């Protein structure tokens, strides 16, 4: 025979039930708000390049086509905006795959410094245009073999190094650090001495479409999706993408990776030769 509940116990049960429903409604409301903001951002990101293309094409059709100097410039502008749209679509595609958990990791052993050097090489021209110097922190150059999805980690590194240029300062420095923390984990960090992130925004930079006012002013090509993609990739590896930043001083973005197991390390060395 079950013991009878006292009136007080019944009241507590009802209160707990009501609280649970309230929490559920709160979550639904938040999701709804999130969905609305997402759609608003999305339409804004699409509108800007589409309106620009429309403007250039209409002006050409209305007579500017006759002027060879103008028509080349306008076609170039239109083409840049088409490029921006296609990058946006690619990023959205990638995010939706990542969020549905459809993107599988293909892990292998690789030397993390090799990928950092590749990211530096890919962005060498852009860095030169901004007078930014790339380097490794002292003691970080020695090859560290990690186990992860090489292509995806390369993508993360390119994104972080690209941001260090976009939000860096002229004559600035981008520094890569690699630490083997405890023999099992490797910490990779990309630091810059650029504009930094105001404290109130730091927790928001990984949100989809989030860009600081200052960031928006500096680089019109960005969509605010890069860090959100990076975050998903690192989380799929079982780690977090972290950030430390001070406005006007600079930012450091970093993440951990698994150190390759001993027997795997030898094959990675072989692959490299
Ligand atoms: P995007 O660069 O396309 O705007 P991201 O998702 O890569 O998108 O970055 C989101 C925002 O975070 C940027 O718009 C910028 O405001 C801020 N941010 C990212 N990296 C840095 C950095 N290294 N220094 C300062 N601000 C940064």
How is this structure best described in words?
With 273 residues, the protein is of the alpha+beta class. It contains 9 helices and 7 strands. Strands 1, 2, 3, 4, 5, 6 and 7 form a 7-stranded mixed β-sheet that branches. Strand 4 (173-180) and strand 5 (185-192) form a beta hairpin. Helix 5 runs antiparallel to helix 8. The model has no long low-confidence stretch (mean pLDDT 90). One of its GO terms (molecular function) is ATP binding. Residues 41-261 form the Histidine kinase domain.
Defining traits:
phosphorelay sensor kinase activity, single chain, 56% helix, binds adenosine-5'-diphosphate, kinase, seven-stranded mixed sheet, 16% strand
Number of strands: 7
Helix content bin: 55-70%
Radius of gyration (CA) equals 24 Å
What is the chains' assembly state? single chain
Estimated structural class: alpha+beta
**Beta-strand residue fraction:** 15-25%
Q: Can you tell me the overall shape? A: globular
Query: What is the number of helical segments per DSSP (H or I, 4+ residues)?
Result: 9
Task: List low-confidence stretches.
Answer: none
**Biggest beta sheet summary:** 7 strands, mixed
Can you write the helix and strand succession as a string?
HHEHHEEHEEHHHEEH
> Which small molecules are bound?
adenosine-5'-diphosphate
Keywords: ATP-binding, Cell membrane, Kinase, Membrane, Nucleotide-binding, Phosphoprotein, Transferase, Transmembrane, Transmembrane helix, Two-component regulatory system
Subcellular location: Cell membrane; Membrane raft
Domain Histidine kinase: 41-261
Membrane topology: Multi-pass membrane protein
């Amino acid at each position: 025979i079950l013991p009878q509940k006292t009136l007080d116990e019944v009241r507590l049960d009802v209160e707990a039930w009501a609280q649970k429903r309230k929490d559920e409604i709160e979550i639904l409301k938040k999701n709804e708000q999130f969905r609305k903001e997402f759609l608003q951002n999305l339409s804004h990101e699409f509108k800007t390049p589409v309106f620009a293309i429309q403007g250039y094409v209409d002006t050409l059709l209305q007579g500017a086509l006759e002027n060879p100097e103008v028509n080349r410039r306008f076609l170039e502008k239109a083409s840049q905006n088409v490029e921006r749209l296609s990058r946006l679509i690619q990023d959205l595609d990638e995010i939706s795959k990542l969020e549905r958990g459809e993107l599988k990791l293909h892990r292998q052993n690789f030397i993390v410094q090799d990928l950092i050097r590749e990211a530096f090489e890919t962005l060498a021209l852009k860095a030169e245009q901004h007078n930014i110097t790339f380097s490794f922190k002292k003691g970080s150059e020695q090859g560290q073999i990690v186990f992860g999805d090489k292509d995806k980690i390369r993508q993360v590194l390119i994104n972080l190094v690209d941001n260090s240029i976009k939000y860096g300062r002229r004559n600035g420095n981008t520094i890569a650090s690699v630490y083997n923390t405890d023999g099992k984990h490797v910490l990779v960090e990309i630091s810059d001495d650029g504009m930094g992130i105001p404290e109130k925004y730091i927790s928001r930079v990984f949100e989809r479409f989030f860009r600081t006012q200052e960031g928006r002013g500096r680089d019109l090509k960005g969509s605010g999706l890069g860090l959100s993609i990076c975050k998903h990739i690192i989380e799929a590896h079982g780690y977090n993408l972290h950030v430390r930043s001070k406005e006007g001083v600079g930012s450091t973005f970093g993440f951990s990776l698994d150190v390759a197991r001993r027997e795997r390390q030898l094959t990675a060395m072989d692959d490299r030769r």
